[in-house]
Batch of 2 targets.
Target 1
Amino acid sequence: MSLTGLSGFCTLQAEGGTEMATQTVLRTVSSAPKKKLVRRAAPDRSQRIRHTAQWAFMALNVWIGVQFYIWVRYFERGGHGLYLPRPAGVEGWLPIAGLMNTKYFFSTGHVPLMHPAAMFLFMAFVLMSLLLKKAFCSWLCPVGTISEQLWKAGRRIFGRNLQLPRWADIPLRGLKYLLLGLFAYVIGVMSADALEGFMYTPYGVVADVKMLNFFRDISMAAAIVLIVFVFLSLLVKNFWCRYLCPYGALMGLASLFSPVKIRRDPEACIDCAKCAHACPAGMPVDRLIQVRSLECSACMECVAACPAENALQLALPPRRSAATSAGRWAKRSAGPLIVAAVLAYIFFGMVLLGRATSRWQTNIPRDMYMHLVPHANQVTHPGM
Ligand code: SF4
Ligand code: SF4
């Protein structure tokens, strides 16, 4: 690699206390001659493909929500009216049940009978993060999609988004890890028997119905909190995801093991900083060789903004021995179609695995649902 115009390597501590890795950066000399731009041959399609994946997953979730609502109403009407089977996919919205059941599975070797789809989906989403950074957050998660639309709407309304100062941003980013740690601790100290026992309490059985009721019969306090979150999400990019989502925190920790990362080739890069300006996570992409941050969601906005051929990509480590930039990245880059295909493969693969093992659906006698669903609001947490 040519070091012309570069003063050498240095290692900077990664931004923020929550980031575990150090990032290797190149310090450029201000007097360095301007590098020649070799324009990208093909137009970028990453954002079109990503948005298609986001809205397709959103549509799937809306359909699951409608089907689940119809199922709940059937039992609330005492077994009258339209009936649709309960969609097991609704358990994707029970991440705590997913974590509990995953622990149960690894402790006992048995697939849990209550909310098994929560476990399959939880494993699928963690696997995505292990392979493709936090791609689940920016490619699939409906909350991530809404968050993205909100900050983009905020930028249109107010002309810009707010960036919190580092002294506020860094501790706030730690909140989601605190929440994750709390859940992990509570579940971590529970035995397999206790986990199973919890799942079979009335609260565990109708956890999904209670979640629906939370939004259907939302209290004034919860509505105010929700409105505040929406407002903050208009102002600050991905407010919920960046500061409060424990699921995103878990995905971030898993993403540390991802072999693909956003990687910059300093020889092809012209130091225009367009990538850094485009990054919704505020990453200094233009000064990094690879983005190891827990906040990187593999959204590829930086890649889309980059004008230079082979300068920036989501990729495996480059071939150091290759002389040309094209050679370094040949068959190393994970383009948007590959990302979409891997996500779809993992998602549908896990669903098929659950179905193939006949452990996808929760099997509860109809009478129990008839008894519990209409009274879900009266069912309290067993610890209360
Ligand atoms: S570094 Fe690139 S892929 Fe990662 S969050 Fe920023 S824009 Fe998205
Ligand atoms: S967008 Fe970033 S990676 Fe691409 S040329 Fe500009 S500074 Fe380099």
Target 2
Amino acid sequence: MSAHRVVVAGGGIGGLTAALSLGRRGFDVTVLERSSQFGEIGAGLQLAPNATRVLKSFGLLGDVLDVGVLPDRLVLADAATHEELTTVDVRRFDELFGGPYIVAHRGDVLAILLRACMAEPTIELLTGKAVVAVSEPDKGVVVAECSDGSTYAGNALVGADGLRSTVRTLVDRSEPICSGYVAYRGAVPTETVAARSGSRDVVAYIGHGLHFVQYPLRGGSFYNQVAVFRSERYRRGEAEWGTPDELDAAFAATSEKIRTALQAIDRSVNWPMYDRDPLPRWTHGRTVLLGDAAHPMLQYLAQGACQAIQDADCLGYSLADAVAAGRDVVDGFARYQQHRVGPASRTQRSARLWGDMWHSDGLVEILRNAYLRERDPDDLRHVAPFYALAETCSHSTQGRPSRAEPSPA
Ligand SMILES: Cc1cc2nc3c(=O)[nH]c(=O)nc-3n(C[C@H](O)[C@H](O)[C@H](O)COP(=O)(O)OP(=O)(O)OC[C@H]3O[C@@H](n4cnc5c(N)ncnc54)[C@H](O)[C@@H]3O)c2cc1C
């Protein structure tokens, strides 16, 4: 076994980006993916500058731009009246934050990462490998055991196995927290969406206990739609909740345009929304967590995958620097945690608040709308903390420092 072998459990966006970040820095990497093939669901993904900056540094931004769309604006609108409450012009984000705002099909992004990993002789990609246990049988060695009985040894192990991570149980045995909200989503051919918000905007229509997101994908030939609502049946403790009839009931008070657009959404599968409380520590011996395994968050800030990509970049340079200094590879965990736990935890907490703000009613809604209507579109204080280049993390990401003023979230 090479002295710098890393086993990655999970081949989603976080796991593959981690493999690339480590493999390109000279580590021998084995990715163990539970599914029979690497893949993502057929829906869109928003990639903010904190992620596109990393993809740029990996030389993958051009590939992502080829399959993605550069939106003009992020728009918050009222779900009943369509009144635009506030907008953020994202066209200057590359200049401001060192990376553009891109929307792309998840499958396309994963395929780009997969191709890049396959091009690295240092990276081994294995499917049908569900990690069921992790142990440290000998000094300096960590072993992943898979459900088929096979074992894979390394000097470090990365748990990138998502919300219901098996690896995380080494660090934390709590269950994910259910928000009582559920999402229906999917990317469909644009011509099948009778009611579109139009243009190149990412539009979120917000209302009481619900929101509806639309944006174009693949040069505008596809359209992504996400419908999210609070389930009354969940609140009443019913076992079956978030069903398509509840979706229609929840959106009954939204505009006709939204109700029409909803008809194009796939009702065969839904995603109950879970997160977890922030963890102060992501490591256990030679094992470290990354992405949703470390910090699953509600998706309202569209940051889960972006944070996973940032984790992967930071893990790569932290471990590489430890090795370059002649230290054990796992000595790099401390720096990784120091750089990433704070920002990711803040994003987890902010995503909950963001959802509460979007879904509010009564006095909070009145105050929210009054604030949003008055907001200067150039005031980026609410997004800068997530997108700006943190001084401490500037090691390998090539972005220019932000000219927007970051403030704590
Ligand atoms: C409705 C919705 C919209 C979202 N929109 C955005 C957005 O616009 N932008 C954004 O940045 N984020 C968004 N997110 C969040 C984003 O999808 C996640 O944060 C991101 O996918 C996490 O990546 P990951 O690789 O950490 O985990 P996952 O994507 O969950 O990948 C984990 C991988 O590990 C594998 N696995 C699981 N268990 C094992 C095991 N025991 N052994 C081996 N393999 C295993 C799984 O098969 C999977 O391939 C959204 C989420 C939702 C629900």
